[in-house]
Amino acid sequence: MTSIRADLRALPWWAAVGLVLLAVVVLALRIAGLLVLAVVDAAQRIEIAVSTAAGIAPLAASTVILPADAPMPGWTR
Question: Which residues, including other chains, have CB under 8 Å from residue 44's CB and lie 6 or more apart?
Answer without folding.
Answer: 60, 63
